[in-house]
Write a structure and sequence with these properties.
The chain is mainly α. It is about 60% helix and about 5% strand.
């Protein structure tokens, strides 16, 4: 990612191009005059870290609750409360898919797949809020749902 160089505060004026180039390549570590260690990095990297942290904070309690059989309560108290609209098997599938997407986002340093997966699941859950949609999407077909049709003439 970046070298192990630790720049001093004075390097921001004396060696600014070196500091900026290192930050652009990953991050640059700067030691302030009071000893505080600071990182300079591309804004996109900081945003990725914020999003990964946000979704990890939302998902980890649900993953932990799953094993304690208190998932419904954890969902109700989370940013992901819309999950209560999904059937239990779909919630399990959501947790598996989003945990994998979170791991990929961390490894690839790209949050887009994680955000897309969560939005797709949210759209599905919100569609299930309507009872007619719910019946169509989750109901079992019956003989009444089908009709004989004649072969089309040429």
């Amino acid at each position: 990612m970046s070298s192990s160089t630790v720049y001093q505060a004075s390097d921001l004026s004396q060696r600014r191009r070196a500091v900026l180039n290192e930050a652009r390549a990953g991050y640059a570590r700067i030691r302030d005059t009071d000893g505080t260690s600071l990182l300079m990095m591309p804004e996109e990297a900081a945003r990725l870290n914020e999003e990964v942290t946000r979704w990890a904070r939302a998902l980890v309690p649900l993953l932990r609750a799953r094993s304690r059989k208190s998932l419904a309560e954890a969902i109700a108290n989370s940013e992901l409360s819309w999950l209560k609209l999904l059937p239990p098997d779909d919630v399990e599938e959501f947790l598996e898919e989003v945990a994998s997407a979170l791991q990929f986002a961390i490894d690839a340093r790209d949050i887009s797949g994680l955000v897309r997966a969560i939005e797709d699941w949210r759209t599905t859950a919100l569609a299930l809020r309507d009872s007619t949609n719910r019946e169509i999407l989750l109901g079992r077909p019956s003989r009444m749902d089908f009709a004989e049709v004649a072969r089309p003439s040429e």
